[in-house]
Amino acid sequence: CESLVIRGRDAWLPCTASTAASCALSVVFSLHAVFCAVLSWKLSRVAGHEQRGEGRAPRWHYCKLCRRHWRLQDHHCGALGVCVHSGNRRAYVEFLAHCLASGLLAACLTAWRAWDWWLRPSDGGTPSLPGLPFLTDLLR
């Protein structure tokens, strides 16, 4: 596996077995979150209670954004554009857990690489900034 090359220079994140494994793990987390959490949501819809004069069924709530009745509605998630209710609450919590795990993994890997990159001792054992020319070329 070769290093990541941008504009003819080696990037600070070489492609090693650990970075390849972390990328693969991130892809697995993302695929599991999409296929097992988001796509397993169920619509448990009741429509027309109020129009038929029966009143509202117990423990059912109406969402003005979705314009639907939901059983045990928790809230309307604006980021995903769906209501969280009894049919998809478990999948929603799993999705949030996977997002949290992926975010923590990315933050830990980034912090570890940044720590290694910024404080890598050079000849005299003092911290140096070996990637500074790379960053200045990147920002031009």
UniProtKB/TrEMBL annotation:
<dbReference type="GO" id="GO:0019706">
    <property type="term" value="F:protein-cysteine S-palmitoyltransferase activity"/>
</dbReference>
<keyword id="KW-0812">Transmembrane</keyword>
<comment type="similarity">
    <text>Belongs to the DHHC palmitoyltransferase family.</text>
</comment>
<keyword id="KW-0808">Transferase</keyword>
<dbReference type="Pfam" id="PF01529">
    <property type="entry name" value="DHHC"/>
</dbReference>
<keyword id="KW-0472">Membrane</keyword>
<feature type="domain" description="Palmitoyltransferase DHHC">
    <location>
        <begin position="56"/>
        <end position="113"/>
    </location>
</feature>
<dbReference type="InterPro" id="IPR001594">
    <property type="entry name" value="Palmitoyltrfase_DHHC"/>
</dbReference>
<protein>
    <recommendedName>
        <fullName>Palmitoyltransferase</fullName>
        <ecNumber>2.3.1.225</ecNumber>
    </recommendedName>
</protein>
<keyword id="KW-1133">Transmembrane helix</keyword>
<dbReference type="GO" id="GO:0016020">
    <property type="term" value="C:membrane"/>
</dbReference>
<keyword id="KW-0012">Acyltransferase</keyword>
